Amino acid sequence: MSHPSKSLFFVVLILQAFLAVVLAQTSQLVFQEDFNTLDRNRWQHLITAWRGGNNEFQYYTNRTENSYVKNGVLFIKPTLTADRFGNDFLYTGTLDLNKEGCNINWDNGCFVQAGAEIINPIQSARIVTSKSFSFTYGTVEVRAKMPRGDWIWPAIWMLPTDSVYGNWPRSGEIDIVEARGNADLTCNDGQGKIGNSKMYSTLHWGPDGANNQFQKTSWAKLLSNGTYSSDFHIYRLEWLSTGITFKVDGQVVGSVSPPAGGFWQLSGLTGTNPWAAGTKMAPFDKKFHFVLNVAVGGNFFPDGCVNVPYNKPWTASSSTPMRSFWERKCEWYPTWYRTSRDDSAMQVDYIRVWSA
Ligand SMILES: *[C@@H]1O[C@H](CO)[C@@H](O)[C@H](O)[C@H]1NC(C)=O
Ligand SMILES: *[C@@H]1O[C@H](CO)[C@@H](O)[C@H](O)[C@H]1NC(C)=O
């Protein structure tokens, strides 16, 4: 009679040992955001009219019409600056964001005066976790719906928290998802459709801006049915000490595993390796934090593509692109609310991070 209980005892012991090993290896949930509220301590707002480095048309504010939570979903929604200050303000006004807590003064982004070019005609939001949550290596899962509407550029991405290897793009940038809100935008240069049926995942890295190597690590996924703006999709980043993989709805968008010589070897550049002190994953071996924003206009929309049913309202070489854009509002603004007033908002249901 003692034998069965003895063997049961050993089975339990072995199971316990097995469980301990599995648990030790299982990643832990280290960040969970369900957006039941917008926690303004966890998510810090950028307040600036700095145009994001890409000549975008928005200024960022912490106002509740641009970032808010509704039914457990975060909304980041671009609105019209004229709705707050009036149309004349765009042509003759002064936007002094120092009065409302401006925290990025790059390119004099805290104080903008109308001149030949108008005041940034769009008001939107960018929120970050740089002061509350950063991590290195892990799996990120985001359930989100991209905005719908012409010239809207949503992004869910990550920036280096300490920029250990130097200024952008030396310390890297991880773009989990970017898209364009246009329903029908097509390029004849091989890119094909670049509107809201396509999403992009990209790593930016390089010794300086002119030598950004992102083309080697930028991938896109085109939906044959539906768009990224009409439904929620699941975006995933698998960031390991051996490589990075992006997925959407369980399918691989792109993947990179750098060789032993790291991203410097992958670049094929000569000169001084800016990541010599790092691992082969450098610059992606340091702490990164989340950035969520909705931009409008700017260089992400190339000249020379075909937008239906009207052409792009500004050109890359224009000295007054925001004025050109604004004065054709009757063409683009209706596309922002074809099915509902929320069409133009990026909606984020949740973000989760598991340790590697
Ligand atoms: C926006 O930021 C300013 C300056 O920090 C602050 O006074 C204001 O309360 C903030 N607004 C909201 C809605 O949190
Ligand atoms: C496209 O998606 C819709 C809605 O999800 C579905 O009803 C339809 O069957 C799909 N069509 C194809 C060709 O897969």
From TrEMBL:
Pfam families: Glyco_hydro_16. It comes from Daphnia sinensis. GO terms for molecular function: hydrolase activity, hydrolyzing O-glycosyl compounds. One of its GO terms (biological process) is carbohydrate metabolic process. This is GH16 domain-containing protein. Gene3D superfamilies: 2.60.120.200. InterPro entries: Beta-glucanase-like, ConA-like_dom_sf, Glycosyl_Hydrlase_16. Keywords: Signal. Belongs to the glycosyl hydrolase 16 family. PANTHER family: GLYCOSIDE HYDROLASE FAMILY 16 PROTEIN (PTHR10963:SF55), GLYCOSYL HYDROLASE-RELATED (PTHR10963). Residues 1-356 form the GH16 domain. Residues 1-24 form the signal peptide.
